[in-house]
Amino acid sequence: MTDVIVQEKELKSLVVNKLTEANVSKEHALVVADVLVHADSRGVSSHGVLRTEHYVKRMNEGGMNPNPDFNVEDRGKTAALFDGDNGMGHVITKEAMDKAIDLAKKNGIGMVGIVNSSHCGALSYFAEQAAKEEVVSMVMTQTDSAVVPFGGSEPYFGTNPIAYGFPAKNNKPIILDMATSNVALGKVLHARETGKSIPDNWGVDANGNPVTDPNLVKNLLPIGGPKGYGLALTVDVLSGILTGSAFGTNIATMYGDYNNNRRLGHVILTVDPGLFIEKDQFLENIDNMIDELHQLEPAEGFKSVMVPGEPEQLKEKERMNSGIPIPESIYEYLTS
User: Fold this and answer.
1) Strand order of the sheet with strand 109-117?
2) 305: left (phi > 0), else alpha (psi -120 to 50), else beta?
3) Residue 304: what are its φ and ψ, rounded to 5°?
4) Which positions are annotated as active-site residues?
5) Distance of CA 46 to CAs 40, 100, 309, Å?
6) Summary mean pLDDT of the chain
7) What is the structure's pLDDT at 198?
8) From CA 292, how far away is CA 286, in angstroms rounded?
9) In terms of Cα–Cα distance, which of 81, 34, 29 is closest to 59?
């Protein structure tokens, strides 16, 4: 299937139009579009505008609240609980990150638990949001059961992604955003949409056998075997059990029960870089780390050593000039 090249401004406008047609406020639709296009511009199409149709379907069938009433309860000086009232997770997490940043700037650290949310998109967006304010961040979210645990034959945890953001003084921030499965489910969905095969370590079929046909994938595999399994458990404890949300196989599915709210949990931790040392020293040391890594001799087949998030940042710079490729079927939906 061929791609259509779309400029950033047009792509955001198309997403906003679709969401507002589903009774999402323009203010919230603009945030969601920003998060989705952020992903596509960085080459993370699994979390890009292809998700729009799903959000519209869930909104139209009553599984998300188009006019949420957010509630924030302070829990001491450094923590808060953010109730998203089952609105769009992108908006909820962005506002919760604003709160976490404020807590870190005032008190050195901040922690915000999020309840009654929905799918929030690429976590790198929120880690970058904090980095722009020169705040260190960690963001986690649970997802519905889709990953076979190490030693198991049926799924329990979701892809349960985690992201970290480390601001620098002169360089772009280090942004690590990763699923605890080998890949996010969205990458399998993108392969289905584009008719491409996948590596045999991404997912398994109904019998637990590795497959290269994305249409046969029933469950995913954890990254690094027991290590990814342990990380997935950690994410679910912190974003689910700690916040009072559902966990494991009790989490509502993304693709199904569209008339029910998913009530997802997320958790954000923010740290002022000047908590232990001078802030400028921290920022300069991150610069030094990045520069020293860049100076390392690359292995055969590599042009250079890059830091987490750098390939995506380079892709974003390129696509802001040349446009963003979108599968033709997705473009047709957005323009319909």
Assistant:
1) 71-74, 79-83, 109-117, 264-271, 136-141, 162-166, 174-178
2) beta
3) -165, 165
4) 119
5) 8, 27, 16
6) 95
7) 94
8) 10
9) 29
